[in-house]
C-alpha cells in the first residue's frame, strides 16, 4: 500500500494499492453493443470479397486471369499479411502503462494497458486503413466506368451494336433459306416445263 500519493484524486484518501482499478458498471452494458457492431461491420466488409474477385476477373484478358489471381494473392499476403502484425503491435505498444522487466535485464511484455487509448488506437488504425482502401478504390471505379462507356460507344459505331449481331445472323439465315426454297421451286417448274 502506497501512502501520501499526490496523483490519487479521491477526496481525503491519498492511498493506493497495486492492483487494477475496479470495473465500471457500464462496461458490461457496452460489450453487447460492441459485439453487435463488430458482427455487422464484419458482415458488411465480407460482402466485398466475392465482388472484388469478380471485378478482378472481369477486368483481365482471359489468357492472363490465372496470372492476375496469383499476383493478387501474392500482393495481399505480402502487403497485408506480413506488415500488419508489425504496425498493429507498434500502435498497441504505445498504449502501455507499465512494462515488465526480464530476469536478465531489459524490457519485457506490457503488464497494464491504457484501455481507452488501446481502444482508440486499435479501432482508429483499422478505420483509417479501411478508409484509405475505399478512397483508393474510387478512382479505379471511375476509370473503369469511363472505359466501359468508351467500349460501348466503339462497339455501337463499328458494327451497330453487339446485341444486334445475332439478329442480323438470324435474318441472313432466313433470307438464304428463302432464296434456296425459291431456287428449288423455280428449278422444279423448269423440269416440269421441259
UniProtKB/TrEMBL annotation:
Residue intervals passing through the bilayer: 33-56, 68-92, 120-144
Main location: membrane
Record key words, sorted: Disulfide bond, Membrane, Transmembrane, Transmembrane helix
Localization, UniProt: Membrane
UniProt KW RNA-binding keyword: no
The keyword ATP-binding is annotated on this UniProt entry: no
Membrane topology qualifier: Multi-pass membrane protein
InterPro entries referenced in this protein's UniProt entry, alphabetically: MFS_trans_sf (IPR036259), OATP (IPR004156)
Domain of life: Eukaryota
Protein name (record): Solute carrier organic anion transporter family member 1C1
